[in-house]
Amino acid sequence: MVATKTPTKAANAKTAEACAKRKAEVRAKVKQASNKLKELMKHDEEIQIKLKELL
What we know:
Layout: H1 7-54
């Protein structure tokens, strides 16, 4: 006997799949933002050091 998905189970599976996809996209965007923030903070520190050297 082959188990077939009911329309409700199929819809729930699609919803769960879409939710997982959105979560993965958000995780990727957060990771990119975090990396960009680290890069900007490093650049800011370099600028502050140069400024102190000039003063």
